[in-house]
Amino acid sequence: MPKPLPGELTFVAPRGAKPPRHLADLSAAERKEAIVALGEKPFRADQLSRQYFGRLAARPEEWTDIPAASRDKLAEAMLPQLMTEVRHVSCDDDTTRKTLWKLFDGVLVESVLMKYPDRVTMCISSQAGCGMNCPFCATGQAGLTRNLSTAEIVEQIAAGMRAIKAGDFGGAQPGEDGEARAVRLSNVVFMGMGEPLANYKRVIAAIHRLTDPAPAGFGLSQRGITVSTVGLVPAINKLAEEGLSVRLAVSLHAPDDELRNELVPVNTRWNVAEVLDAAWDYAAQSSRRVSIEYALIKDINDQAWRADLLGRLLKNRNAHVNLIPLNPTPGSKWTASRPEDEREFVRRLQSHGVPVTVRDTRGQEIDGACGQLAAAG
User: Fold this and answer.
1) pLDDT confidence tier of residue 148, bands split at 50, 70 and 90
2) Residue limits of the Radical SAM core domain (predicted)?
């Protein structure tokens, strides 16, 4: 009988317990200290990191460059069980897959893998639930259970990469020369469960694990990482000082404070002007265009005058508007805008010279689209 993979749960810790320390929680220097404390040579940290981040080798028996006598000890101490797959559901001809994960303490979170013709994107969670209380979002209505650890965030990515590598998701696609090319994960969006900037320290550490070259991390491009926020201004300002080139996505949803106070309650703390000022500072510091996320809700925020107001706020700014037809959630009184209102909203923004796209609503059938992640058991 094969040994369980690191990450497969054989027990569930009590609620309130801290996630066990994991390789992905640690910096390169901290890994060496931990390895030495186990009685191993410091270079074992580099070897183990290359297995985890570089080769995606999850089973100790695959670690052929590490002595057999050390493998189980290293696996137990450095790659503890954090999460296990409860189920996954697919749609869009299996190009969209939502996975429900049970964490080490029984808490549930979700992530979504999406294959496009030119890339594979993964939407990951940074919190179990969300404390922002946006009334049109299923995650927000669930409330916040807890922050995820750095490793719990990273393990979602590692699991997605392993599925792709094994051919369990995405398969292969033809290149320009007609030869089959294995798909690779290239884009990660912190748009799953939770407000990423409310778990700032662990999210920043996770970004480094995702983007630092092996053996320190997976070596993804920072330009392929998007961090979403409802507008926590001090955290946006702090992010601007990190020297990262990740994309910032601001979930605005209304251009006026009166409505945004209702749709995004944190707006009563930091209003539209303050959020956008912080976003423009981030754009200047990072040289990255800011994505303005705007869920179109029928007869709530889709009026032509609001499109004009938004256009005036964003005109001549380094920004792009991502319009999201509202994804329905159980019991919600709101729904997506009428097609003609959506088209007029787009036209009004374009008349102000503001770049705009309407987001593909992939994953809606499996409650895997924006605002639908609720991690129901």
Assistant:
1) very high
2) 116-365
Binding site for [4Fe-4S] cluster, by residue number, is 130, 134, 137
The pTM for the full model equals: 0.90
CB 120 within 8 A of CB 202: no
Inter-axis angle of helices 233-240 and 272-286, to 10 degrees?
10
Tell me the per-residue pLDDT of 10-68, one tens digit each, with 9 for 90 and over.
456 666 789 999 999 999 999 999 999 999 999 999 999 999 999 999 899 999 999 99
> Could you give the CA distance from residue 69 to residue 182 in angstroms, rounded to a whole number?
34
Pull the structure tokens for residue 348.
Answer: 């009004």
Nearest to 95 by CA among 71, 117, 126: 117
Contacts of 192 (CB under 8 A, 6+ apart): 109, 110, 111, 112, 123, 124, 125, 126, 373
- Segments in the chain forming alpha helices (H): 28-37, 43-49, 68-78, 138-142, 150-165, 200-211, 233-240, 257-263, 272-286, 304-314, 339-351
Catalytic residue set: 110, 370
Q: Which residues are annotated as a binding site for S-adenosyl-L-methionine?
A: 194-195, 228, 251-253, 327
- Please write the tens of the pLDDT for every residue from 75-130: 999 999 899 999 989 887 888 999 999 999 999 999 999 998 888 999 999 999 99
Is a pLDDT exceeding 80 seen at residue 243? yes
For each of the domains in the chain, give its residue range(s) and CATH number, in order of start: 23-78 (1.10.150.530), 83-366 (3.20.20.70)
Residue 347 CA to residue 327 CA, distance in Å, equals 22
Q: b/e for 64-94, b at 16 or more Cβ within 10 A? A: eebeeebbeebbebbbbbbbbeeebebbbee
Return the structure tokens found at 62.
């695959």
DSSP code at position 301: T
CA-to-CA distance for 177 and 200, rounded, in angstroms?
Answer: 43
- Neighbour tally for 210: CB within 10 Å: 25
Which segments are annotated as binding site? Answer: 130, 134, 137, 194-195, 228, 251-253, 327
Helix or strand (DSSP H, E) at 317: none
Sequential DSSP letters for 102-156: EETTS-EEEEEEEEETTEEEEE--SEEE-SS--TT-HHHHH-EEEEPPHHHHHHH
Tokens (6 digits) for 361: 């609503």
